[in-house]
Each structure stands twice: as structure tokens, then as C-alpha cells.
Amino acid sequence: MAKKILIVDDEEDLRTYLTSLLTNNGYETETAADGEEGFIKVSEFHPDAVVLDIIMPNQSGVGLYRKLKKSEEYKNIPVIVLTGVSAYKDFFARDRGGLPKPEEFIEKPFSTEDLLAKVKTCMK
Amino acid sequence: MDRNSIEELEPTRRDYRQLFRKVPCYISVQNPELRIIQINELFRNDFGDRIGELCYEVYKGRTDPCPKCPVGKTFKDGQVHVSEEQVITRDGKEAFVIVYTSPLRNEKGEITAVMEMSTNITPVKRMQTELTMMGHTVATMAHGIKNILTGLDGGIYVVNSGLNKKDSKETLKGWEMVQRNVARIAGLVKDILYCAKKREHEISLINPNHVALEVFDLFSKTAAREKIEMTIDVDRELGTMLLNAEDLHIALSNLVHNALDACKFDSNRNDHRVAIRTSRKGPIAIFEVSDNGPGLPHGWEDYIFTEMLSTKERYGTGLGLLVTKKTVDELGGQITVTSDSNKGTTFHVSFPINSQPIPEESGKLDTVG
């Protein structure tokens, strides 16, 4: 059965890109445009991993990350943080308020090989 | 000393006095009370004839001595001290100076005064600030380009994926992504070139209210699509003035575009409004663009026209406001901003209503559309 990936990004182009890339590589995908919608989709879609953007309207990626990692039900879902702002890598490295580190971190622009490798690794 | 020796010494004294007067940096001599007892010519030019006054009052407009006064230190330890200070010249301009202080002793070796020699390093400081800003600008631009590149990468991937699968719908989707991101690059490059070049602004007789109405028309559909109420209030008293219609259009369009984005990305309310207003205050034409979005982050008012700042992260580079500021400056106008986190942001642009005679070829009113 295909592994399920939830893509949370407010930019439609990126959702289209990742949907195409991941479905072409045998994953089942679902998308959400912000943190709030992302949390609803997690409960409905039950993803095996989440590709998460950081800067989004409504609830940011940081907000959704906190919510997931604090939840008993969802804390084990691996999260791949995808962002264009490299400073967020440092933010996640030091200031997570006692939460675990994200499973993977990818900086834009990324290579498709890198992204696919990280998606695969985090679900092992 | 006999008369001949005094006569021999006189030219040397004159030379030294001349040297003291003419040296191309500020020299002042302070007594232990920190009162100025001697000054040179450059000091007199830039700070006035302030002999007898307290140095901290003269240099900095302070009422008490500076906390790390280099003159005081030299009085205390007899050593040369160096410090960088910010001073205010007689015409109210701020200047950066590098200060050297040196003790002046009497025959007994006691320090009776301290000489303060300052070099104006304001142009160097300005260059330093410009270089820092340039670094910041390049970094911000790189961030913007990074996002566009990801969009382009994505578009190319989706086009290829569609072609491989012979899926014309997917191919078209990818092609649209490529087009969108190429347009973003084109916009970015246009803004960079606009900022970099010095442009000639052809002035003609225009009706600024017409330009404001054109900008309103241009954005009203976008506003409606985003459920943002857009209004315009033009002051008929404004009449006609000598200005460049295209530049006014660029400036107002950038401000309206930003105002709409501020509302679009604000999830705290759902009754967003953007207003364009024109008015006349005596010889000044005023254009205002307001939004009731989230307001600017604290402290941004001070830097928003000099640095590339954007609240829109991937969508904006912050170049738009630099373009607007440059346009308004080059047209002899002024731009200011007021912002409140509860009320939103208002940009105020003002131009003196030019009363120069109208050139003959400018008989017809210019608009952009």
C-alpha cells in the first residue's frame, strides 16, 4: 500500500510541484494551505509523513509542528520541514520548547533526489 | 630673552599659529572645567565662535559631561585617548568624528588644558552604512530569487511529468507555473533596474486625481476577488499640477499593491479595507493609501524606505517600497508612513504643487492608461 504524505504549504505552485513529484514516485498525497487546515487533514488523512512549510497565513508551520509533537496521537508522524529561510533551521535546532527535532530539514531550492531521499529515510 | 631672539622666534610662532588655525580638522582646547579656550578655523566654521562655552554643550547639545569623556580621561591620566563620537554642527547636522585628545602642560609639567582634535568621518560612516545595506539588499534579493527558483524548478518538473504521461492538463499546469515565476523574475529585475538607474522625469501638466482613479480602477477587481473593500476619495480642489503621470502611477500602484497584500495575508479580521485619498493643503498635494491590515512590525517605520523589508516573505522582496521612495524623491516629493497594529498602515505622499509656467507642448493633460 502506498505511503501517505501530507503537503502543507500556502503556495499553490509548491503544492502542485510536490504532489506531482511524490505521486510520480509512488506516494499518495493530500494538501493543505496552512497550519489550521493541515491539522484537520492530519486527522482525516492519517499521513505517514508531513512535508511542512514554515511561513504560512493563519497557523504557521511552527504552530502546526508544536501541535503535532504535543499530541499523543500524532507525535510519531515524521515531519520534513521545508523552508526558504535558513534561519529557521537554527530556530528548530535550538528553540523548540522541549519538543523533539524535526525528522528532516530541507532548504529551498531543493533537488528532487534530496527531497525523495529524505522522505524515504524519515519513514523508515 | 633678548630682543634679537624674540624677533627671530616671531616667524616660527606665526607659522605655528597659522598651522593651528588652518589644520583641516576640528581643534579645540579645553580647560579643566571643560570650557573651550581656543579653537581653529574649521571648528569656528562648523560649530561657531564658542570660546568660553562648555565643550559637551557645543559638540553635543548636552547639559552634562559625556559619560566617557576623552578630555576628562586625558586630564586624569595625561595619556592620549581616542574615541568615536557623534556631534551636532551649528546647522543642526549630525556628524561622526574620530577624536584624539592630548594633554597640554605648563613648565612644571602640570596639565593645564587638553587639546581635542577631531576628524570628520561622516562620509566614511555613510559609506559603511551603504555597504551594510547593500549586503542586506543582496541577501534579501537572494531569498526572493530562491523562492522563484523553487517555483521554476517545480514548473519544469510538472511540465516534464505531464509530457512523459502525455497528460496535457498537467503539462499546462506546469507551463503556467513556469510563466508565473518568469513573470516574478521579470518584475524583480525591473525593480532592481529601476532602483539602480538615475532617471529623467519628464514633467507635464497632469490631473493627479485622474491618475489616482486609474490606479483605483486597476486594482478594484483584485480587491473584490480578495473580498477587500476598496474606496477612493478625491479632492476636486487638487486641480492640475506639473508632475510625471507615469511615476505617480507607479508610486501609487506600489502602495495600493502593498496595502492589498497586507490585508490578504492578515487572518485577524475579515472586514478589510483599502482607501486611496487625495487632498490639497495649501501649496501641497497629498496622496494617502491606507489599509486596515495588521500594521507594520514594531520599529519598521524607521527603516522601511531605506532597506528591503517585506512582511510577505516569499511573495515580496521589499523592493517595491524602495522604488516608490526613489520615485517620490526624484519628483521632489516626500513619503512617510504611520502604522498601528490595531488600525493598519497609511502611507502619505506629498508633492509641492508646482507653479512653474506650463511648457507649450504640455497643453494636454497626461494620464497613464
Describe the model.
The complex is a heterodimer of chains A (124) and B (369). Chain A is an alpha/beta fold and 124 residues long. Chain A has a single domain, classed as Rossmann fold (3-Layer(aba) Sandwich), CATH 3.40.50.2300. In chain A, 43% of the residues lie in helices and 19% in strands. Chain A has five helices and five strands. In chain A, strands 2-1-3-4-5 form a five-stranded parallel β-sheet, with helices on both faces. Chain A is globular and about 35 Å long. In chain B, a hairpin with a 5-residue loop joins strand 4 and strand 5. Chain B folds into three domains: 118 residues, Beta-Lactamase, CATH 3.30.450; 76 residues, no CATH class; 169 residues, Heat Shock Protein 90 (2-Layer Sandwich). In chain B, helix 5 runs antiparallel to helix 6 and helix 6 packs parallel to helix 9. Chain B is of the alpha+beta class. Chain B is elongated. At the A-B interface, helix 1 of A face helix 5 and helix 6 of B.
